[in-house]
Carbamoyltransferase (Sporomusa ovata), 757 residues
Amino acid sequence: MMDIAVHIQITGIVQGVGFRPFAYNLAQRYGVKGWVSNNASGVEIEVEGSQAAISGFVADLSSQSPPLAVIDTFTVKDCQLGGYADFRIMASVADTTKTALVSPDVATCSHCREELLNPADRRYRYPFINCTNCGPRFTIINDIPYDRQATTMAEFTMCPDCQAEYDNPANRRFHAQPNACPVCGPAYQLLDKEGRPVDSQEDDVFIQARKQLAAGRVLAIKGIGGYHLAVNAFDHAAAARLRQRKVREDKPFAVMAGSLAAIKTQCLVSPLEEQLLTSAAKPIVLLNKGEGYSLAESIAPANPCIGMMLPYTPAHTLLLAPADIWVMTSGNLSDEPIAYQDNDAISRLNTIADYFLVHNRDIYCRADDSVVKVVFNKPYFFRRSRGYVPGPVNLVRELPPVLAVGGELKNTFCLTRGKQAFLSAHIGDLENMPTYQSYVEAIEHMQKLLAVTPMVVACDLHPEYLSTKYAQTIGLPTVAVQHHHAHIAAVMAEHHLTGPVIGLAFDGTGYGPDGTLWGGEFLVADIREYRRAGHLSYLPLPGGAQAVRQPWRIAVCLLKELYGEDFINHQAIPLVQDLPAGWELVIAAAEKKINTPLSSGAGRLFDTAAALLGIRQSINYEGQAAIELELAAQGAVGRVLSYGIKEVDGKWNLDFKPVFAALCQALQQGSAVGPLAADFHTTLAAAACDMTLKISRATGIRDIALSGGVFQNITLLSQVVGMLTQHKLQLYLHRQAPPNDGGLALGQAVIAGEGSR
């Protein structure tokens, strides 16, 4: 029987995951000849042999691919025989059309971990051990195809032993681009806060670092995507010191445990949470504290949850013993981007860290840790970054190339290429120059890495966002996308919906086309257009942005509206008992409409309730009042209080002032704060359901999409989903992007792309 030949092109995450050595070894098994190579689209193979051998090779190539590979397309075409003498891995082919997908960074695999801890292995305690199944990818890549010379490992020439592994098709490190060992690879060193090497009789820098941390010192540790700041999580004084130095008053810290067993001594862990903790991405997983929780109180104060993760680099494994638990928070001052360059880290963090554990392998692209929670037995992202980026979100159809620049808070940007959208790693809040510079650099790098030349740029409707201003400097056609439409379109993109849907977009603030601040929106939307079918009633924000930071301002004006001048005699209301200085001026300015914009934001309802109930008058981080209101409601069963719905100018208007009046009345009757916090949540869920049903009956639409940062409140989310599901409506939640503004750019990109088709 005559031999046949086929040409195979595979796209997806197939570079940097051991696909070429896998194909080589598969070819040896089937006795076929030809070649395999990386190209700018993915992996290319030409192979010839008997009909049976080729059929088996092609079938196994698709069905038994390496564990980290994600195949997007797999194309097989007949071709002419090449007369090959053997099967070889050919040099990578670079061309101008780059469509290969870059792998996210991958946590240390079990094989490398075993070698790391084996005294007989030549890489014993070597903190850069890796193979084709694990190690850095996205954070060290400068360009594709994914080869060593296109990474920050280019300056480290492999020694003969490493080169032999790299060249041996039977070796696990065959064509592992970051391959290295103590002889030829990068190394760690311990520096003092001035950047000087620490003299020590102990040669092992990880033992040195552990001793410093045990003495209560703060360590800055360089990892894969940037620096962490670390202290012993059982050391109350050290944790408090870190919080003070980092200028992070209340927001919880994440922690890293040396083992899953250590996590289980502190937290409740479900099977899916365990699966996430031990996955190749190893994100921070938000877990419920257990009865045995004993970490320093200042790590996650007054919070029943804590973010836990496991070691994902060899250095982490060397630093943490199995029973250890360390605070591992982003290496930055509050509101700044994570430090990833050594000089910058020492300059910015030397007022926080006592020592720096650094290495000499450059990080090309910074990446914060991802944060995820299990919701309805599926992952629900709060931050999508390391371990997941730059993996694509597959779209329902091809779009022209779009750059979507995102919003102001929790910024990410998005690039589209064909039927795929690529969200960036977490950038942060675009409110200062260091973060803005990091943002611009990241956009330029991603455009190069993905070879995307945008035809259009999408931005938020808000004219004062730095991201919007950046979009206007690019010189491309600009599409301004309404904030809440983008939120809903992001959910639709994830689920391949084109609409129409009823979208509930609940957050703090988004600019409306009428010039007011939206945020409690009921939209009838598709992936091109939307109609505002309903919204929360407007509340005044005395002092503008100051009212967001000081929720008492909204609450005191509401009390004046409810009770007139006599409100100060209602002493059973906690806010009245402790009125902040200047409250009279705030009311006077609001009544004269001086710097008092109107907001329909759902987040402002939470702020107002928290202030009225005496839970939180001023916040130290975004969403703090809402988070503490949810915590106060834990364990209580809420009632549905009276609220108002009326139709105004063809839009349903949800009035929550009767709810606040009922809360105040209950306080004066001696009701406890916890049950009233639960009443607030249950009432908002019931009112949202009521509004949605009215719109559904009027339009016939039964697909409901939920988005916006308020839906990080799992108490509210669970009740809204439960109530709407009882009415046989089809609900869609985020599963690949966060519901907060970290997912905004995905929706912007889809709306702008659809409008440009």
Q: What stands out?
A: The chain is about 30% helix and 20% strand. The two ends are 50 Å apart (CA to CA).
